[in-house]
Specification:
It comes from Flavobacterium luminosum. InterPro entries: 4Fe4S_Fe-S-bd, TAT_var_transloc_signal_dom. This is TAT-variant-translocated molybdopterin oxidoreductase. Strand 9, helix 10 (about 265-270) and strand 10 (about 280-285) form a beta-alpha-beta unit. The longest helix has 18 residues, at about 160-180. The protein contains 35 helices and 42 strands. Helices cover about 30% and strands about 20% of the residues.
Amino acid sequence: MSSNKKYWKSVEELNENSSIVETLRNNEFVEEIPTDEFLGDAASLASSNTTRRDFLKYVGFSTAAATLAACEGPVHKSIPYVVQPEEIIPGVADYYATSFSDGFDFANVLVKTREGRPIKIENNKIEGANFHANARVHASVLSLYDSLRLKNVKIAGKDASWNEANSKIKESVADAKAKGAKVVLLTNTTASPSTDRLIGQFLAQNPNAKHVVYDAVSSSEALDAFQMVYGERALAEYDFSKANVIVSVGADFLGDWQGGNYDAGYAQGRIPQNGKMSRHFQFESNMTLSGAAADKRVPMTVATQKLALVKIYSIVTGAAVAVGKFDGEAEVIKAAQQLKAAGAKGVLVSGIEDKNAQLLVLAINRALTSEAFNPANSRQIRKGNTAEVKQLIADLKAGAVHTLIMSGVNPVYSMPNGKEFAEALKKTKLSVSFTMKEDETALSSTIAVAAPHYLESWGDVSIVKGQYAITQPTIRPLFSTVQFQDALLSWTGNVQTYYDYIRSSWSGAKSWNQLVHDGVVSMEVGAGAGTGADFNAAATVLAGTKSTGTELILYTKTGMGDGQQANNPWLQEFPDPITRASWDNYLTVSKSDAQAWGLENWNVANGGLNGSLATLTVNGVKLENVPVMIQPGQAKGTVGLALGYGRKASLKEEMQVGVNAYALYQGFNNVQTVTVAKADGEHEFACVQLQKTLMGRGDIIKETSLEIFNTKDAAEWNIMPVVSLDHKEVPAKSVDLWESFDRSIGHHFNLSIDLNACTGCGACVIACHAENNVPVVGKSEVRRSRDMHWLRIDRYYSSETTFAGDNKVKGESDGLIDTISTLSGMEDPSENPQVAFQPVMCQHCNHAPCETVCPVAATSHGRQGQNQMAYNRCVGTRYCANNCPYKVRRFNWFLYNQNDEFDFHMNDDLGRMVINPDVNVRSRGVMEKCSMCIQMTQATILKAKNEGREVKDGEFQTACSSACTSGAMIFGDVNDKDSKVAKLVEDSRAYHLLEHIGTKPNVVYQVKVRN
């Protein structure tokens, strides 16, 4: 029924006459095999007479010999400890609880170390550790080993000692104090109680000093509104698991909105339980993760969103605030009515950066008495103050700042007019930047102080009120670094180390050692009260909103965030969940606007995506040569552009990609009126939309509506394929081409993936990268379909809610002309498509097609259900990849390790410190793919064996299942009938990918249900 719906990954696939799509379907490997490189001189080879026997000698069983040294694995020598540290057992991982905070992302995490090296970030799952790692936090371990980190203090660009720098800073601060001149501490949001105390002590000793908090991406308006109502500068906390109706007006709460980390609670309500699930309305401009997950998504401009918010406010609270007609009003009224009916089980959020809009959000949730709305445990993050930052800029320009000390900020890059800020720095007597990188601001400062990575630092953080967490070092500082807090101690005359300072000030329910062990502790808090706000007046102001032209919406991408980790190749190569493009930012444009402006996207012969370039003008400021991506679901009259790209300083050349959208972030407002003009030239994207497509191969995505799910038999909405046996139709899974092994003894691993819970966040992709030493190949290779990700998250678009809906639309068309236009419209659903995400990795088939065609038995099946790879046996015939229906095998076209052609982390000694010693680093010519983290499952079995017990349910994990905070991925042993995964495999929503071909996968999917 609904599972026969047509899905498409790229607009190009909707063109039935596309020769490119047809070629890609029939030719999985779009690049020619470079036989000249493998077999020597191509000319002499062509002129030789080669017998069939000689040919097999080259490309069959002895290809390993023919590939010569190119495929030979490097030899490594092991050096033993002279004196082995007591806490380190070679071969056994240690885990340390710590906290991540960089001013933009915050998380409670565990750090996996091997032989003293941090190699992977895990989620801290202890009670009270509520903030989990996103893709950027998982990737942060690689930033520790960035070879371009600032390695020591620099004064005027020359190497110096900390004592020299400290002396100059103290002299400047004393001189300013004597003259009554201004000293300013400019920091990001630290969310650190101890740092706040130290800054307070510094300000007390220096009455002429001021502390200004600056976040590159501002939430200042929401902070102002919350402060007015609740008396503190903070953000409301939300628990979406307690909401039956969720209405979002421009808030990508599954992305980076107000710090993110809402996906776990959200997913709890999205998995059908007892026939119920939450209902989610999304009103937005850009297509976001939240919009992709919504049951009802309505694209609209931000100006219209403001009117929609007033309408919702009037309906929920009963306030009589007049608002004119606007597009999408009927859908807004419907959402508002359902929200009001839900009462305490309803919640509204908004990402509109406007104080009046944020006041209405608070008013609506108070009127609902929403259980999901929690102002008491407020978020202590994103505390940047736009008004104070603007005043600082004015003071700098006027030469009124004597000494400026910066920590954790890069304003020369991220300010709307960074060059102006750099010039203003010259008017100070002294400018100091504490930074991990010799970035744009460090290069413009008098003194650049090398700051440690968070994995080298002590600290504390309070992400939400009532939670206190510790940051502890997991490795000694790699370079000559100085922590900002240690400098503050020195400037205030305190001889303590920062560690002693934190420890001496701790007093709580847990002992210090227990706190360090757990990483986090919870405490009771109460809500504050502010001066009050006139909500009706705020609504009246918003009701007068008028459109001022095309809107530019500036946002942060799931991978890159605000750009702090721009030199991290894992994040650069991470495909954006929505556009599926990596190594770029770009202007997202609706199809209708693109046609009006003459902007295009097109696919070339090898499937690569190309696009037009555009020039953007905002208040006279021009941003030239911006690549254009035509985005289904983009609201007409709006365009989107991601912040965090366009950096140059302290980045490897390969990472210097994209355009700097901060130049258009005027007044720290993420919505600007823009003029778009087509520019000359074209841009080549590294986009994986058309790569490895499964479109047209049968039931890939299965979905249904909640009504059908509740009222119809599973056989109707989860149709199982049938095959012919003895001229009778029988279920496909009942027929085997091969004899099956008895897998009832011992462990047998399965992975369940719930399409309802998957938000496409990509944390699993980066976690897999870290755990399994997946190489980065660069933009050019990704464009050639050679990305090495073991796990990909396919993104599909569709038009109608169900297959029955498709039939209804077609059936209601009248006459030839109407029918043609109707069908044409259904084939081009780019105005507002529905979206589904599907993680795809090796399916670990019990009857695996790859195993039967490998001439050297390099790939085989294990008794525990895992498809195994013996890399030393693999000779790179790629027969297995040709025979894999799921397109999950990756071929090492080159040696990516220690190769100057691939100058990423594996090309230098420091970067290779992140490599997991439990997983082999593959060589050229070898095929690789997901191993279902066999090293992790075997370690779990050995641990239980050593402790003389059975493995408990939940202990078995893979990198992806462990990283998944939404609960979409559940891994375990199906032979344990009480395990979660065993029950999910038998669930009525369970199905296998391409079940009709009889591969019998060990990965099972759960049918997507829409409310």
